[in-house]
Specification:
Length: 83
């Protein structure tokens, strides 16, 4: 049997990550559903681009003052241009 990450998609019910376990960082991917979505930023900041850096800075600054889950979903939508 192959191990899988299994993280649920934030917006799509029934979709779960079927990558090999990746410490919940980088991105999730469901091969079955053919979709990718963001996981946690990589701890070493390898997530490329100004948007990624700005997002990390914003998260660090806000540090839980707003609902972190809703915040993460909003950030994802902004970054990916909505559904
Ligand atoms: Zn995953």
């Amino acid at each position: 049997m192959t191990e899988a990450c299994g993280a649920p998609h934030a917006d799509r019910e029934g979709v779960a990550c079927d990558r090999a376990p990746h410490a919940m960082t980088g991105y999730h991917h469901s091969r079955a559903a053919g979709v990718f979505w963001d996981a946690a930023p990589l701890p070493d900041g390898r997530r490329a681009g100004r948007a990624g850096l700005a997002e990390m800075a914003a998260r660090a600054t806000r540090s839980g003052r707003t609902g972190s889950a809703a915040d993460a979903v909003q950030a994802w939508k902004e970054e990916h241009g909505g559904g």
